[in-house]
């Protein structure tokens, strides 16, 4: 999971809730400063166990490049409610949510869609569903199919735990495992409290459904390559290492798509939180180039 480097909103960012035909969504909304024209709109989709704050450090730099940038809690994540029915978290439902947000909250115009980790799988599915709705697609720290095999036992264990224990009990067990592995909690007590609150606010059915998807995702790279051939602008962005999808897998995905693969130095699975300034520049440069091609 991503750990945001801070929680205080920059002056260009507002926390909002918005109604759509598919329910109310919580999001962070960054607008260019006064006097700077808006050159495009971006929608940022977080990964498994994540939330909109995963992108908090990207929002002001992107706004200052002229982009209205919205970071979303998906259904069942943190401040966006989710039902207890596992079927509500199938991929088609997540894609339909993105289109509802785009139409109801973002004016319906094509957006630069960025998906981090599991959010990248959602973004890929959205592109395959309706590529004309997108100004571009960025796959960040996302692989071509299911996560690496060494992660599968952890996901299965989590699915089993969610079926038997409360979110508080699962959180306590995860923190104990971290302590035994020498993984320290965030030094900032506010961020540590946020991480716990975010976990406890998740919909258990959503966590279990996404865990299953992460270990069973098929390879749809060739399908996405056809969208690229028809004009969809796509980029692949990663850190220098990644526990979920090895960076060579991500590089191979980019090669199969025939699109750029940019490595953010000093970042691991979450360039958005670990190297936000550099990542924001990568994104805005790509969006500028995509807009120039669209002409």
TrEMBL record:
User: Gene3D superfamilies attached here?
Assistant: alpha/beta hydrolase
- Keywords annotated in UniProt: Hydrolase, Oxidoreductase, Peroxidase
Q: Provide a GO biological process annotation.
A: glycerolipid catabolic process
Domain (AB hydrolase-1) spans 43-150
InterPro entries for the chain: AB_hydrolase (IPR050471), AB_hydrolase_1 (IPR000073), AB_hydrolase_fold (IPR029058), Epox_hydrolase-like (IPR000639)
One Pfam family assigned to this protein is Abhydrolase_1
GO molecular function annotation: peroxidase activity; triacylglycerol lipase activity
SUPFAM superfamilies according to UniProt = alpha/beta-Hydrolases (SSF53474)
Looking at the record's lineage, which domain of life comes first? Bacteria
Protein's name according to its UniProt entry = Alpha/beta fold hydrolase
